[in-house]
């Protein structure tokens, strides 16, 4: 006789816990929902788990649990991640959109902008969210990775903003023309010495190119500040996500690039998360 779904779920949660995975019960439930199909309701899932699992569901669930046991992130297994009340497709080619990055969205939406540039877009979560929140705005999003741009293209189409977003393969601002009211980025900022201490879900499964520039972790900010100000309109803003200890150093890089009103903003945990600065308006004689 096939085991009941609830028993299979409980056993899987225990396996995850025994493997040292935090929130094994929550992960197991998310993966079970995925095994049934993303549109299954909570009531339907509860009723289904009271009986034996259909063989196809049981096979998908076991495959998902096996993937989680080797520390593949849940978002990659199920292929999506929630961000700013939207769902984004994620793959091993892009960073998993994180709640901390929503601070960058909140800060950007405080500013007036019609045309923006998102550097190192990855999944496209930042650019696509801004376009969906700001009707009439247009954006350009760059990434050095063709695979990441393919994911961003799928997300833009799924959320309905593809007609307002240009996706460009570029190393930061290389080859770009024109100016923008707002330039923003969540660049790689983890120092090389910090990489070994990351969780396996991040260190072993997310693209290293999007995690670390090597060295002290600040090279991406130096590169951005060397080129982005030339693409800012007068009174335009440059805004970046930073690691929680990097605010003062990145603010200094912004100031050295000639930006004014440089400020560091905290995330919901009251840790430095965003640095922003304004390009001075052209002085009239």
From TrEMBL:
Basic residues composition bias: residue spans: 276-285
Positions of the UniProt region annotated as Disordered: 265-285
GO molecular function: nucleic acid binding; peptide chain release factor N(5)-glutamine methyltransferase activity
Gene Ontology annotations of biological process type: methylation
Superkingdom in the source lineage: Bacteria
Entry's EC annotation: 2.1.1.297
One Pfam family here: PrmC_N
Domain Release factor glutamine methyltransferase N-terminal, chain residue ranges per copy: 7-79
Keyword annotations: Methyltransferase, S-adenosyl-L-methionine, Transferase
Amino-acid positions noted as binding S-adenosyl-L-methionine in the UniProt annotation, renumbered to this chain: 120-124, 143, 172, 186
HAMAP family linked to this entry: RF_methyltr_PrmC (MF_02126)
Entry protein name: Release factor glutamine methyltransferase
Organism name: Pseudooceanicola algae
């Amino acid at each position: 006789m096939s085991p009941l779904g609830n028993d299979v779920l409980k056993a899987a949660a225990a396996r995850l816990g025994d493997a040292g995975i935090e929130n094994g019960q929550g992960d197991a439930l998310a993966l079970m929902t995925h095994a049934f199909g993303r549109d299954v309701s909570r009531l339907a899932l509860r009723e289904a788990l009271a009986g034996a699992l259909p063989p196809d569901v049981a096979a998908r669930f076991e495959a998902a649990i096996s993937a989680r046991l080797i520390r593949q992130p849940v978002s990659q297994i199920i292929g999506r991640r929630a961000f700013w009340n939207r769902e984004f497709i994620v793959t091993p080619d892009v960073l998993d959109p994180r709640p901390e990055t929503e601070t960058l969205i909140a800060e950007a939406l405080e500013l007036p902008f019609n045309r923006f540039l998102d550097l190192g877009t990855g999944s496209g979560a930042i650019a696509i969210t801004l376009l969906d929140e700001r009707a009439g705005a247009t954006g350009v999003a760059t990434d050095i990775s063709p695979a990441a741009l393919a994911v961003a293209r799928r997300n833009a189409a799924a959320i309905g903003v593809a007609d307002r977003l240009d996706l460009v393969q570029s190393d930061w601002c290389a080859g770009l023309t024109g100016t923008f009211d707002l330039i923003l980025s969540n660049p790689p900022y983890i120092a090389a010495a910090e990489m070994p201490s990351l969780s396996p879900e991040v260190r072993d499964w997310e693209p290293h190119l999007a995690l670390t520039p090597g060295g002290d972790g600040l090279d991406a900010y130096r590169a951005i500040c060397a080129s982005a100000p030339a693409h800012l309109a007068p009174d335009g803003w440059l805004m970046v996500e930073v690691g929680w200890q990097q605010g003062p150093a990145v603010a200094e890089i912004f100031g050295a690039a000639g930006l004014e009103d440089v400020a560091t903003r905290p995330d919901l945990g009251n840790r430095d998360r965003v640095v922003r600065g304004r390009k001075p308006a052209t002085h009239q004689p």
